[in-house]
Structure formats: structure tokens, C-alpha cells
Amino acid sequence: MTNMTDKAGLRVDAKLAEFLEREVLKPLGRDVDAFWQGFADLLGTFAPRNKALLQKREDLQAKIDAWHSERKGQHNDGAAYRSFLEEIGYLVPEPGEFQIGTENVDPEIAKMAGPQLVVPILNARFLLNAANARWGSLYDALYGTDALDAPAAKPGGYDEKRGAAVMAEGRKLLDEIAPLASGSWTDLETLDDLTLADPAQLVGHTGRGPLLRNNGLHFELVVDPGSQVGKSDRLGIADIVFEAALTTIADCEDSVAAVDAEDKLLAYSNWLGVIRGDLSETFQKGDESLTRELAPDKDFADTDGNPQSLPGRSLLFIRNVGHLMTNPAITLADGGQIPEGIMDAVFTSAISTLDVEDHARYGNSRCGSIYIVKPKMHGPEECAFTNDLFDAVEDLLGLPRHTIKVGVMDEERRTSANLAACIHAVKDRIVFINTGFLDRTGDEIHTSMQAGPMIRKADMKSSDWLDAYEKRNVGIGLRHGLSGRAQIGKGMWPAPDLMGKMMIEKIGHLRAGANTAWVPSPTAATLHALHYHREDVFEAQQGLGEVPGLEPLLTIPLARGANWSEEEVREELDNNAQGLLGYVVRWIDQGVGCSKVPDINDVGLMEDRATLRISSQHMANWLHHGVCSKDQVMDSLRRMAKKVDEQNADDPSYEKLSGNENAPAFRAACDLIFEGTRQPSGYTEPLLHSWRLKKKA
Questions:
Q1: Which of 9, 38, 293, 632 counts the most CB atoms within 10 A of its CB?
Q2: Where is the Malate synthase N-terminal domain (predicted)?
Q3: Which range has the worst mean pLDDT, 66-75, 562-571, 663-672?
């Protein structure tokens, strides 16, 4: 049982309270008693509103379920369906013409276009790696991945043939993004003769070589003729270092397993470390002990010889949890747990105030802003609630209005269908919208659970609603002034080992108008940065067409007339079951919320909790409509348990699933499917948290 202490009528985990008071409130010079009383008052106002919004979700879902059930077997009438959604308040009127009014936004968000990382906040090493991924080695990224079309490096040290292919690719890239006034970089004899076609691309020199810029992004030539790579290069270039992950989201939500005060304290401690600038992590790599710290800024002299610097780290967002979950770290006078999203808003903002008020070693925002991504909001009422909550947090902490900026994840159907109204609800603090296929599909299935069986999961990617969803997100964002003031983002490339394929496909996000997109690793960020050198996103945004209407977005992806064979059903169940089990076993048993999980074809994919939502909801839907039976689902789970065991055979801390069906991990997987139709909005958190707490106990 955790040790609790009384704070203004709240019962607060003692270690969490001590952390906040000693490490945050004291350096800020805030009155501790006034803070706790203000926090208690804030909860008195916002906890009941939070509860009412969740109840409205349930009420709307019940009406939608009833509507579909009454029309079972009938052809779906799109016009009647839309009228019904308007009648019940699921669809709200458009807000009319407006432009967002967000001010004091850092250039990484407003004026620049580049990759974005999302990193689990509980893992300090990963968090540091992501924060430091502002700059990345092109040569390392090409040498170690399949992004380079050349024979793989031979084991046993540096492969000079592979290295030569990397250098040749680097020269081709320089010709493309920084062409010379005449000739090719391949033929350049000395950097003393460097004359660019556009002299303005040369912005200065670091201590290592020339610093150049293209499409607003910098890259540095590292000249070191004595190094292993540089000695074989005519110009002595040992590397090309690219500005890569402009922004990083430190995630308290889908990529972590944080279920109690102990977990939340670790999350907040790591956030404090990167904000204050003193986070470090020591780890073993082979026989060597290494310590990771935050990178300093990059100093250089401009072309007039004046000293300048560029940020050495990604600009950091923090993703709070959504409105649904509560957490036992703090309880109310009646013993009820407080909404975790409210706790995150207050605690992460208080920590970030150290940056705003200049108590940080490096600084995060140069514009005095705090950046919070808010996920899983359903419609404009919930966005307005977040706006009011952030107002109250600013008042509690004594911050100017709209210091706290918000990123809105467009991953729920009611948000997608009312996106303009959602943006309007936070129009003076919005800095980010983003689409997410997995969560959005999970909500698509759950919302229309009673309408009929859904198409196969892979077919969702070519469905009418998904195409409309992606295009509407960009189009509505542009219509209301996000270009040049905020990020319009696209979702994750999930396969960190398939960089060659990423380099072919992910440039499509830029051409669709996204000025940022998620990648799974610092290496992927370096490679994805090349796309932003090849495409001017802000120029592309000017040429985008009309916003699709609501009709395709509201087209339910039902499998009308499908008659799948038993083998096809088994194949679909196996795919879902394998992905679900492969992720759940790490979440429940090891508390790992994000990792590279092999799929059914043994391709490693970066998975987070959204994986479970789509897989469990799809299986629940087919089970509910008789496409498959419970016995068929259990057969897939048992067979896939053996496969997942084989895939994790080299993990000494792994606990087997097969033959262990009473273990928390296997039972959690079963519950996610067999209780899937009854879960709030199809979310996995209530069941996962319950089973993880049992496992921890």
C-alpha cells in the first residue's frame, strides 16, 4: 500500500507530493499550501465536468448502437444517418470562417518542416536519444540501413566498399540539395573552391566544417581527413550531419505502461530532467559503461565571422493522457481517484514552468511556451474542456494566458467529423493536429459496432472513410490558418528495419500537406529529413484542393455481401491475435509500453497501445456478428501464443504465454476481445491497467 499524505483535502502519494514540492514548487518560488488548495479547487470544478463528458460519450454511443440495431439488415441510408447524428448532437454545426490566433510559437512548429519523434517518457535513455536526435549522421544512417541500395556491410569492422557507396550517395545528395555554381560535388578538388549555385545556402562554419541550409533545414559537413572515413575522401569529409527531428513528443500515454504513483513519479521525474537539462542515464554496451546526457547547442560562425548557435536538441512536446482514465496516485475526499488527464495537465505544466521562468540549463521553448499534446478527445465539447482546464492551470501557476499550447490528436470519429469546431474550441492555443490510423480505425469500428461486420483490417487503408479522413484533416487545418503557425502531422512509419521502403513511401506525407510526420527512431528521423530537403511542404500546401465532404467520412466500412472462406477468417484472426499477444505480454509482464514487436511475418514493428485497440475491436466485431466463433478466436490465440513465445525466445525476462492461460497477460488479451464491445469507446486502458496492477502486486 502506497504511503499517502493529506494536501488540502486530497490524499496524495507522499513521494509524489515531496517531489513536486522540493523539485518544482520550491525552485519556482511558489507557495506550497496555496498550490495544493488551488489544485483541490481546480479538481472540484473540473473532475465533475470530466465525468459528465465521459457520460455523454456513453449516451451518444447507446443511441448510435440502438439506431443501427433497429436497422439491422437494411441498406445504410447515408442521408438519414447524417440527419440522425445531427439530431443527437454527435455532429454539430460548422463554426463558420475563422483563423487560429495562436501566438509565441517556436519556429520548429510554425515555420519549419521536418520529422517528429514520439518517445516513451518512462525510458530515460530513449528520451535522451530522441531529444538529441535534432542532429543526425547521414553516413551512419545510410551505412547501417537498407536505405542505401548497395551490398550490405561485411561483419568485422568498417567495410570500405560499403563506406565508399555511402560517400557516393552523400555526393549525389549534395548535388541535389546544394548544387555548385558549376560542376559536381564529386569532382570538387578542395572546399576552398566551394562556390554554391545559391551562395545564401552557406550560412557559416562550425569548428568542423561548412554549415549549409536548404528549405529551412541545416546540414553540416564534418571535415576530418585523419579519420577512418575522411582519409579516403578527396575533400576529407567524414560525415554529413543533418538537422533531423525538429520536435519530439515525450509520451505519457499510449507508449507507456503507467498505472500507479510509482509509474507517474518516474514519468514526471524524467520530464523534469529533460526540461531542467540534467537528465542522464548510464548503461552498459558490451564491456563499456556509457553515460547519455542532453546535447549542447551547435555553435558556429556566420559568413561575417559573428558567433551564432543553433538548438542542439529537439523542441519538446509532452503528451498527457486523455480524459478517460483515473490514477490512484491522488484521491479525493470521498476516496475516488482523480482524472489522470487533469493530474498530467497540472504536474507537467508546473515542471515546464521551470523552462518558461528560466530555471533550465538549455531551455526548451525560446518563445516562452509550454507544448502539450492532448489525445483521445471526442468532439468540440471535450476540446473546449481542455481549453478551460489549461486556462485554470495557467491561473494556478501564475502563467500568462495561452502560455500552454495544445496539440489535438484527430484520432476519434467525433473529432474528425467536427474537426473545424474542435480547432475553433482551442483556436488561440492550438499548435498541432495529427492523424492516427490505428486509434482512428479502432474508434471507427467501435462506434459502428452494431451496424454489421467490418471489412478486413488491411482493407481499411484503401477505404473511402480513411481517404476522406486524411484529406479533411489537412484541408481543414489549412483552411483555418495552421500553415505557418502550427504543425499538420501524419502518423508513424512502423517498421524501423525497412528504411528503404520508408524512403520511397513516406515522402507522400509531405505531398499531402503534412509539415511533420512521425518516425520510429533517430536514424529514421535523419533519413526522413531528406524528404523535407526534396519537397517544400509549405509550397505544396498552397496547391491542395477542396476538402472532402462528410459523406465519405461517414461511410461505414462494412463488409457488405462478403463470404469469407474459413481459411480467410483464420488468417485474419491469426494476424490480429499475434499482434495483440505480442504487445500485451510485454505491457502486462514487463511494463513496456512501446517496443519493436515482430508481426506475424517476423517483421519488427514499433507498436504502442493503439495496436491493441484496432486488433481487439476488429476481433470483437467479427465475433459479435458471427463471422467467427469464440472457439475459433481461442484457437488463434493459442496457436499465436506459441509463435509469440518463439519470437521472444532470446528474452531472459520473458514469461511464456502458451500453457499459461491463467496468467495476467493471456487473460488480458482474452478480455480485450471478449469484452471488447463493452469497453468505453473501445479503449484498452481500463483492462490493461487492471491486469498490470494485478501483475505488479
A1: 38
A2: 17-71
A3: 66-75
Per residue in 584-612, pLDDT tens?
999 999 999 998 999 999 999 999 999 99
In 3D space, the residue among 270, 318, 322, 324 whose CA is nearest the CA of residue 294 turns out to be: 270
How far, in whole angstroms, is CA 463 from its chain's centroid?
Answer: 23
Q: 346 near 320, Cβ under 8 Å? A: no
Q: Would the annotation count 70 as a binding residue?
A: no
User: What angle, 0 to 180 degrees and rounded to 10, lies between the N-to-C axes of helices 160-177 and 522-534?
Assistant: 40
Catalytically annotated residue among 319, 440, 609, 692: 319
CB atoms under 10 Å from CB of 336, counted, come to 11
The reported pTM is 0.97
Which contacts of 505-512 are long-range, i.e. CB under 8 A and separated by 24 or more positions?
Answer: 506/531, 507/531, 507/534, 507/535, 510/113, 510/535, 510/537, 510/540, 511/535, 511/540, 512/470, 512/471, 512/474, 512/544
Question: Is there a binding annotation on residue 255?
Answer: yes
429 annotated among ligand-binding-site residues: no
| CB contact set of 653 (below 8 Å; sequence gap of 6+) | 589, 590
> Is residue 319 part of an annotated ligand binding site?
yes
- 319 has catalytic annotation: yes
Question: How many beta carbons lie within 10 A of that of residue 467, not counting itself?
Answer: 14
Domain boundaries, the chain: 566-696
- Reported as a pLDDT band with limits 50, 70 and 90, residue 73 is confident
616 CB-contact burial (10 Å; exposed 0-12 / middle 13-18 / buried 19+): buried
Burial label, 377 (beta-carbon count in 10 A; 0-12, 13-18, 19+): buried
Find out whether 50 and 339 touch, Cβ atoms under 8 Å.
Answer: yes
Longest dimension (CA), the chain: 78
In this structure, are residues 408 and 374 in contact, taking their beta carbons and an 8 Å threshold? yes
> Is position 118 annotated in a ligand binding site?
yes
Query: How crowded is the C-beta side of 667, counted as CA atoms within 13 Å?
Result: 12
Where do the DSSP E strands lie in 69-175? 116-120, 135-137
For the cut 60, the answer to whether the pLDDT of residue 492 exceeds it is yes
Active-site annotation holder among 608, 613, 645, 671 = 608
292 marked ligand binding residue: yes
Q: Are 444 and 469 in contact (CB under 8 A)?
A: no
Q: Say how far apart CA 3 and CA 14 lie, in whole Å.
A: 6
User: Quick check: 507 and 535 in contact, CB under 8 A?
Assistant: yes
Rounded CA gap, 122 and 251, in Å? 8
- Rounded CA-CA distance 529/531 in Å is 5
- Gyration radius of the chain over CA positions: 26
Question: Any binding-site annotation on 631?
Answer: no
Q: Is 686 annotated as a binding residue?
A: no
For domain 566-696, say whether CATH 1.20.1220.12 is its number.
yes
Q: What is the DSSP string of 283-352?
A: EEETTEEEEEE----EEEEETTS-EEEE-SSPEEEEE---SS-EEEEEE-TTSPEEEHHHHHHHHHHHHH
